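Q: What would this chain look like folded?
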Amino acid sequence: MKTVSLAAFAVPCILMCVWLVGCGRQYREDLDYDFTVLQTWSVDELPDQEFVQFEGVFWDSDDTLSMRKLIVDDAAAAQRDCLEIGSGTGLISLLCLHSDAKSVIATDINRTAVANSRYNAAMMNLDKNFEVRQVDPASPGAFAVIKDTEKFDLIVSNPPWQDGRVGVPLDHAYVDPNFAIMDSLLDGLPQHLRLGGRCLLAYGHRPAIERLLAGAKQRNLIAKILDDRQLDTLAPDFMPGMVIEIKVPTSVTPQP
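A: My prediction, written as structure tokens:
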């Protein structure tokens, strides 16, 4: 992992361009460079690529290990139209595209994360079938920027896991006020998952998983933990995160 600190400089856009040249990256006029680079890192799934993390965007290497394995080793995204809710740096979306997803739409409520996802996709030449949409903080539902008619074969997310109050944009990675994202995600699955589609959610917080499982059962959705660990033996916070698969039975009717 390399740390690239630009925090002491007053003009991050200019310095970002200087950093780009120094790293051998190409400048593109359609990208937003007005952000500070916090660090760069690589993942085993894309050993020849280097992800950039902008300051103010969440990243934890252990949080999505299980989901990344499903995408890369088990071809969960191959030849599928995918949606990622909460893209962050864009890692999961770009792994889907690298693993032969037909298309990926990603959303995020954090403006910096939207720019970060677009930037990483462009630098890795994975932006052809990739779209990132900005969610309005005033309307933070899971499908707030998804059209009523848009449906997906695979929906993935590493959602925020605790109720609370958002102070700065980065807090959206951890905090889901009144669990609006979790509840709206579950409510919207019958409308936005195609027949036979899957929703994969990665959580490293036991109380959030327990609430998710209860919410899925209440809505007559099919939830399954894709992990060998026993949930009731885990600490409230644990790593790596656990993947929960949610499917919509054919008997569930989409909400109008």
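Helices lie at 12-22, 65-72, 91-98, 111-123, 180-192, 206-218.
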